[in-house]
Design goal:
Number of strands: 11
CATH topology of the largest domain: Rossmann fold
Structural class: alpha/beta
Helix content: 40-55%
CATH class of the largest domain: Alpha Beta
Distance between the termini: 16 Å
Length: about 300
């Protein structure tokens, strides 16, 4: 299975069982707009201060009692409240509302939330890139600043497992570097080669990993012909693994700013996916993130 666009993804989600998102800090207009937009494909439970949430819903022209609202117990972190809903089967994943990313993740990592899996949490960003034949995932441009080889293994594993949840049997992963040649003094090329070997050993489950590989060779089959480099996966990668957060962040922002690419963003590595977008993210971006999380649950 291949998801070619966010519209394609929405169609697939509508065919499946309805999922429920727990919105942490739901007194946020953009988050509630996304939830309202996503109502045809999922349900929501809103966590936060009830009067503020109802006021925003009313300002958006909808019934203030349209969604269940859960107020955290005194002294309880709202992420813990959301986690309890997840464990009780009342929610399938979490979403960041009017709360900082750091504060949300602080609650997710609390022992009482019981959401940790004992592995690294990492960020994935999905883009509908003009001219590319399917949704493209970029990781990690949001969580891990300078990942070690072991951390890169966890980042790849998180992304591959998520793609399996979306229905991909064997996602294609590119270990991006500045060159397709292993240079002993360039750490990311050595690590990308090691990750390819680990993938061949099956440590990530079913996937195809190519690395080190430069961006042009990963994206354009014609570039391989010019450079004498061959991979049948050129132009068909599902996941781009970047060497560090800065490179991932810059590449992702270039897609948005220069290509106008629609985006979705999630945190993986916990027991439940976490929709985590910036506070300035559009309702469309938040909707796309809800749809892709629902598609993999």
């Amino acid at each position: 299975m291949v998801v070619r666009s966010f519209s394609d993804l929405t169609t697939r989600v509508k065919r499946g069982a309805r999922k429920t998102v727990a919105v942490v800090g739901a007194d946020d207009a953009h988050a509630l707009e996304a939830v309202l937009h996503a109502e045809p494909i999922l349900d929501a439970v809103l966590i936060g201060e009830a009067d503020a949430i109802r006021t925003i819903l009313a300002s958006l022209g909808t019934d203030a009692e349209r969604f269940p609202i859960v107020v955290p117990d005194a002294g309880e972190h709202p992420s813990v409240t959301a986690a309890k809903l997840f464990h009780a089967g009342r929610a399938n994943f979490l979403m960041k509302g009017r709360i900082t990313s750091g504060e949300l993740l602080k609650g997710v990592l609390m022992p009482e939330a019981n959401l940790r899996k004992g592995t690294l949490m990492s960020h994935v960003a999905f883009f509908e890139l003009p001219g590319y034949p399917k949704l493209l995932c970029l990781t990690d441009g949001g969580m891990c600043p300078e990942p070690t080889l072991a951390e890169k293994e966890a980042i790849v594993r998180n992304a591959v497992e998520f793609f399996h949840g979306l229905g991909y049997e064997c996602p294609n992963v590119a270990g991006l570097c500045g060159s397709e040649t292993v240079h002993p003094k360039i750490r990311e090329t050595v690590e990308a080669a090691a990750l390819q070997k680990r993938a061949e050993e099956g440590v990530f489950g079913t996937c195809r990993f190519v690395g080190p590989i430069s961006y042009d060779l990963a994206m354009l089959p014609e570039a391989g012909k010019l450079k004498g480099y061959h991979t049948p996966l050129a132009g068909q990668f599902d996941i781009l693994l970047t060497p560090n957060l800065v490179s991932g962040n810059l590449l992702g922002k270039s897609y948005i700013v220069n290509c106008g690419a629609p985006m979705a963003g999630l945190i993986l590595g916990a027991k439940a996916p976490i929709v985590l977008t910036s506070r300035g993210a559009s309702a469309e971006e938040k909707y796309n993130s809800l749809a892709i999380a629902a598609g993999a649950c």
